[in-house]
UniProtKB/TrEMBL annotation:
Taxonomic superkingdom: Bacteria
GO biological-process terms attached to the record: intracellular manganese ion homeostasis
Organism: Actinobacillus indolicus
An example Gene Ontology molecular-function term: manganese ion transmembrane transporter activity
Protein name: VIT family protein
Residue ranges of the TM segments: 20-42, 149-170, 176-194, 206-228
One GO cellular component, as annotated: endomembrane system
Lineage: Bacteria, Pseudomonadati, Pseudomonadota, Gammaproteobacteria, Pasteurellales
Pfam families xref list: VIT1
Keywords from the named record: Membrane, Transmembrane, Transmembrane helix
Cellular localisation: Endomembrane system
Membrane topology, as annotated: Multi-pass membrane protein
Length: 232
């Protein structure tokens, strides 16, 4: 048998964890940097600024974890319910399920004879897997993992949030506003570049959209902080 040397390196399998990682880091960086920008504009004491930042990091990470856990748990529950339903249908109506599978392959371009032959062979190999994959569009390998999603989102949020907190810790108060803006924009641009490269997408659109939203968020909170600081 001739060996196939040709191989293609597809990237779509990264979409789930890439989305969660980028979303978490982006949320952590923008939310904490925006909060710190508003606080710095209001000119609080250093201890107040640091306590606010740390509290926001911890609370935000827990919130991200909880939100992702609930969301992915709901997805996992739906996937398990679909699996149980398909198991029952295969037990009660095996012939109808075989015809349904053959019909799916026929709609994809196979002849009626070949569609039925493929359906029979896949059913003999693993009927449930064939129906979950080709009828519903999911597989056991891709089932949602709530704990993994929760931990990943919380960790990504903390990594993003750590950037503005490090700026707060390392620089004097009179340099914080400019340093927060620059470090946040660099961090956002880096996130956009990394996500684009990992996903095989053009870098410039990814960088542009993430930086623009970061500028908007920091600008609004900075104005609010300035107004509140002046009024106090």
């Amino acid at each position: 048998m001739m060996k196939i040397k040709h191989g293609e390196h597809h990237l779509s399998h990264r979409s789930n964890w890439l989305r969660a990682g980028v979303l978490g880091a982006n949320d952590g960086l923008i939310s904490i940097a925006s909060l710190m920008t508003g606080m710095v504009a209001a000119q609080p004491e250093f201890n107040t600024l640091l306590l606010t930042g740390v509290s926001a990091l911890v609370g935000g990470a827990i919130s991200m974890a909880a939100g992702e856990y609930v969301s992915v748990s709901s997805q996992a529950d739906t996937e398990k319910a679909d699996m149980e339903m398909e198991k029952r249908e295969l037990e009660i109506h095996p012939e109808e399920e075989l015809q349904e599978l053959a019909s799916i392959y026929q709609q994809r371009g196979l002849t009626p004879e070949l569609s039925m032959e493929v359906a029979k062979q896949l059913t003999a190999h693993n009927a449930l897997d064939a129906h979950m994959r080709d009828e519903i569009g999911i597989s056991e390998e891709s089932f949602a993992n709530p704990l993994q999603a929760a931990f990943s989102s919380a960790a990504a949020f903390a990594v993003g949030a750590a950037i503005p907190l490090l700026v707060i810790l390392l620089l004097p108060m009179n340099m914080l506003l400019g340093a927060l803006i620059i470090s946040t924009l660099v961090g956002l641009a880096s996130l956009g570049y990394i996500s684009a490269k990992l996903g095989g997408a053009p870098a410039l659109p990814a960088i542009s959209r993430i930086v623009i939203w970061g500028v908007i968020a920091m600008g609004i909170t900075g104005i609010i902080g300035k107004i509140v600081g002046v009024s106090v």
